[in-house]
């Protein structure tokens, strides 16, 4: 992650799903689209969402104001990943103990 005129996230080792989640942080609903739709006007030149990010040379650039939200999401995902790994290790160690006990019985 690089901080410059925006927050640049390297996409080299990120799965597309995670890249899209980062991109969605920089997108919001276009109020002009909603207003025109409600009034029945044409939305030919208005998109339903506004995206403030850019894809530049293998990086996703998002506005600097989203840095804290991005850090918070990364911490949350890292905690969940650590919990899943620990849970798998505990299950594996329980399984190995059962196998060892069964082998000792025979």
Describe the protein's architecture and organization:
The chain is an alpha+beta fold. The protein is built from three helices and six strands; from the N terminus they run ββαβαβββα. The strands form two sheets. Strands 1-2-6-5 form a four-stranded antiparallel sheet, covered by helices on one side. A hairpin with a 2-residue loop joins β5 and β6. The model has no long low-confidence stretch (mean pLDDT about 80).
Given as residue ranges, the uncertain stretches (5+ residues, pLDDT < 50) are: none
Q: How many runs of DSSP E, i.e. beta strands? A: 6
Order of helices and strands: EEHEHEEEH
**Distance N terminus to C terminus?**
55 Å
Shape: elongated
Spatial sequence of strands, sheet with the most strands: 1-2-6-5
Indicate the mean pLDDT.
78
- Helix and strand composition category: alpha+beta
Helix amount: 40-55%
Count of helical stretches: 3
What kind of sheet is the major sheet? 4 strands, antiparallel
Radius of gyration: 23 Å
Q: Hey, roughly how much beta strand do the residues contain?
A: 15-25%
Concise account of the structure shown:
This protein starts with a strand and ends with a helix.
Which short descriptors sum up this protein?
single chain; about 110 residues; alpha+beta; four-stranded antiparallel beta sheet; two-stranded antiparallel sheet; about 55% helix; about 20% strand; elongated
């Amino acid at each position: 992650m690089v901080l410059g005129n925006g927050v640049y996230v390297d996409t080299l080792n990120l799965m597309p799903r995670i890249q899209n989640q980062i991109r969605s942080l920089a997108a919001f609903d276009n109020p002009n689209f909603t207003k025109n739709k409600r009034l029945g006007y044409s939305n030919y030149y208005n998109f339903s969402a506004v995206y403030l990010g850019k894809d530049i040379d293998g990086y996703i650039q998002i506005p600097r104001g989203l840095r804290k939200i991005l850090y918070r999401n990364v911490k949350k995902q890292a905690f969940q990943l650590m919990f899943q790994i620990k849970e798998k290790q505990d299950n594996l160690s329980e399984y190995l103990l059962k196998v060892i006990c069964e082998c000792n019985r025979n």
